[in-house]
Amino acid sequence: MKNWMEQIKSSAHEMKQVSTISVAGMLVAISVILAFFKLAITQTLQVSFAFLPVAGGGMLFGPVVGGMIGAVSDVAGFVIRPTGPFFPGFTLSAMVTGALFGQLLYRKPVTVKRVVTACVLNSVLVNWVLNTVWLSLLYGNGFIVLLGARIIKNLIMLPIDTALLFSLLKLFERFRFWNKAKGNGSF
């Protein structure tokens, strides 16, 4: 519990650095752009890689900044290109995604086990539970009816999402260590 609170305090402290804010802004922009290229299978089922920059921001700057990147990405994406009604539940889901990846990956070595764990938890907690609840409330469909197709889609996407995220985080990790070796601060 103590380590968890230290991570939150450290992540909140990251927001005081100009480099954190500028990189977080770029990650928000990348996430919004990636959301433009989603594949809508049905009204309640889609494939998108917009979570990748959010997860990367969580890994680099922790759960507080990761959650903020997720929330701002969701709102900015809706403002720039709305694809349906605005629903704050999805903003909460995006915030939870960033915070979850931040909590599990911040200041820790990137390993396959950690990335798989983070992706599985994100799929179960955010994609299966939260987003299915939001879609059920928004469109009036039954939770169980929506859940079956969403589980299948997420099981198919899990290895793809994990491989892409692992590759991205290894790149971020290499840049983070290179930057520290040059003496350029925390990022």
Account of the 3D structure:
With 187 residues, the chain is mainly alpha-helical. Helices cover 78% and strands 4% of the residues. The protein contains seven helices and two strands; from the N terminus they run ααββααααα. It has helices at 2-14, 18-36, 51-61, 63-80, 88-105, 112-139, 143-181; strands at 39-42, 45-47. A two-stranded antiparallel ribbon has the order 1-2. A hairpin with a 2-residue loop joins strand 1 and strand 2. Helix 6 packs antiparallel against helix 7 (143-181). The protein is globular and about 45 Å long. The chain starts with a helix and ends in a 6-residue tail after the last helix. The model has no long low-confidence stretch (mean pLDDT 90).
Tags for this model:
7 helices, mainly alpha, 2 strands, 187 residues, globular
